Input
Amino acid sequence: MFNLSDLYQQVIIDHTKSPRNFGRLEPCNHDAEGYNPLCGDQLHVYLQINDSNVIEDVKFEGQGCSISTASASLMTEALKGKSVDEFEHLFEAFHTMATADISETPDEAVLGKLAVLAGVKEFPARIKCATLCWHTLKSAIEDGGTARTE
Ligand code: ZN
Output
C-alpha cells in the first residue's frame, strides 16, 4: 500500500469510498472519455461550461483503481466554479507535482487538497492513474475525443 502520511491517506480513502460528483451530468456541453491501458482505468468526464468560460458543473463516471477514482473526485471538487483559465493553471500545477522530484514539496497554496496526491510520484506506475482525469477533462474542454495516457 502507499506510504503516505496518515492525513493524505485518509483523504484518498474517503474519496475512493465515496467519490464526489460521481454520475452523469445533464445537461452538459462538453464530455470526453479517458482510458489508462496500463492499469485499466476508464473515466467519462462531463462538464457544463457557461458563456463566461466558467465550469458551472463537472461530474465523472467510470471504473478504475482507488487512485484514479480519488483523483477524479478531488479534481471535480476543486474545479466547480473555476474558469477554464484557472483549470489550465491547476492542470499545470498538478502535473508538475505528480512528475516532480520526490524531494519537492507540493505547492499547497495553489493545489489545496489536491496536494494529497503528491505521494503517487513515489510509484511511477500510478502517476498515470492520478493524471488520467486531468487529461480527460482537458480533452473534454477541447472536444478532443478519447484521452489515453499512452
Ligand atoms: Zn489506476
In short: The longest strand covers residues 41-49.
